[in-house]
UniProtKB/TrEMBL annotation:
It is an enzyme of class 2 (transferase). It comes from Streptomyces morookaense. This is alanine--glyoxylate transaminase. The keyword Nucleotide-binding does not apply. Its cofactor is pyridoxal 5'-phosphate. The keyword Glycoprotein does not apply. Its EC number is 2.6.1.44. Keywords: Aminotransferase, Pyridoxal phosphate, Transferase. SUPFAM superfamilies: PLP-dependent transferases. It comes from the Bacteria.
Length: 419
């Protein structure tokens, strides 16, 4: 195995094909995919509608660039603009979530003529020079040489530390007071606040509903833009809402919204949505060589159509709720499980050592045992101690029950090992 490959497992796992919620490895073993690729397989593996759209477009023309009109791109942009909730919205396509956030930062800092931004503690926004500069965890953000000046706001993590004891209302009030205090200390203009409605890589932690609406009231007093990073939370994954920001809708929609991961069902589609006045502050913003490429746009359109026609948001709410319930039942009494939390089909299982500290070793063991038992899951969290469960949104009740049972057995094994 090449040393430079950073893999989840002790021994590499080579996947060869998938169907529905299952994938197969090179030895023919089948796995239930509880991580949906990496939240990229939003509907299902090898969804015939998407495969057909990709094959047909590939047979016509692979690439034209945004210099020319492609009907899939126009239609997808129109549908995403309408769904976004942002008035007078425009869409700019990219090839990844990182690039979408870069574009959003470029727009916000240009529009506001400031390189000061607010980001959340424990956040993850991608791998580029500016994206690591707004990522609030030093192990994911190894450089401090970012061109941005970033101030980190409370509100991301609340499972540990002084904020853990607070009620939702107290937590919200404390975070708002922190934000106000911070803004009182800042010199000059602040361009934007960027936040994931539910932190993804950070361990599927959600703030109380309404936190960002309360933030929004403060931000608006200063003209600061709100960028919602929906790379993991978009398209109905959180169940109750189509976008994560809608759990904080009281003060209206965000100014900018970024998306990627699931919309292409594995094809590289990302993008940013913004009001026309913000989008138009850059002249050359319509040029990206591969952003909006026809094959990816055809995939995105077919995938979005399927998602809406089959009410997969409703499925995420129903089956996600049942899955969380079954997981709680399957792990009841296990001291290694500190908390099972989440929204819809975005469920975090936080693991702990006997002394109450975060347990990355339990998470690593759980991944290995789950693999042996035919289940693929992810992990994350500030210390890498949280299992992340985010299956394709077509997950059935029977598959949810099967996965919960496997994971219950896996965590009992982990409990026996770590004591
Ligand atoms: N934003 C969020 C919330 C993410 O979770 C990720 C990736 O995990 C990114 C941005 C970066 O996306 P990409 O890996 O497509 O560049």
């Amino acid at each position: 195995m090449p040393e430079w490959l950073a893999l989840y497992y002790r021994e590499p796992l080579e996947l060869t094909h998938g169907e529905g919620r299952y994938v197969w490895d090179a030895e023919g073993r089948r796995y239930l995919d509880f991580f949906g690729g990496i939240l990229t397989t939003m509907t299902a593996h090898a969804l015939p509608e998407v495969t057909k759209a990709v094959a047909e477009q590939a047979g016509r023309i692979l690439h034209t660039s945004t210099l020319y009109l492609d009907r899939h791109m126009v239609e997808l942009a129109e549908r995403i603009a309408a769904l976004s909730g942002i008035p007078d919205a425009r869409v700019f396509f990219t090839t990844s979530g990182t690039e979408a956030n870069d574009a959003a930062l470029l727009l916000a800092t240009t529009f506001r003529r400031s390189n000061q931004v607010l980001a959340m503690r424990n956040s993850y926004h991608g791998r580029s020079f500016s994206a690591v500069g707004i990522t609030g965890n030093s192990s994911w953000s190894p450089t401090s040489l970012s061109p941005l000046q970033t101030l980190y706001v409370h509100g991301g993590v609340r499972t540990r530390g002084p904020y853990a004891q607070l009620s939702d209302a107290e937590f919200t009030a404390a975070c708002v007071a922190d934000l106000e205090d911070m803004l009182g200390q800042v010199h000059g203009t602040v361009a934007a606040l960027i936040a994931e409605p539910v932190q993804g890589v950070g361990g599927f932690t959600a703030p109380p509903d309404g936190l960002y609406a309360a933030f929004r009231d403060v931000l608006q007093q200063h003209g600061i833009l709100w960028i919602t990073d929906e790379v993991q939370t978009g398209w109905g994954r959180t169940g109750d809402h189509f976008w994560g920001w809608q759990a904080h809708a009281a003060s209206g929609p965000p100014d900018l919204l970024t998306f990627a991961k699931g919309i292409g069902n594995g094809m590289s589609v990302g993008g940013v949505v913004a009001r026309a006045e913000v989008m138009n502050c850059l002249d050359a913003n319509s040029i990206s060589t591969f952003g909006g490429s026809p094959v990816t746009m055809a995939a995105g359109l077919a995938n979005l159509t399927y998602l809406l026609e089959h009410d997969l948001q409703g499925n995420a709410r129903r089956v996600g709720g049942l899955l969380a319930e079954r997981l709680r039942a399957a792990t009841a009494g296990l001291a290694v499980v500190r908390e099972i939390r989440g929204r819809g089909l975005m469920i975090g299982v936080e693991l702990t050592e006997p002394d109450g500290t975060p347990s990355p070793r339990a998470a690593s063991l759980a991944l290995e045992h789950a693999r042996e038992a035919g289940l693929l899951i992810g992990k994350g969290g500030r210390e890498g101690h949280t299992l992340r469960i985010a299956p394709p949104l077509t997950l059935t009740v029977a598959e949810a029950e099967q996965g919960a049972e496997i994971l219950g057995g896996v965590l009992r094994r982990v409990q026996d090992t770590i004591g």
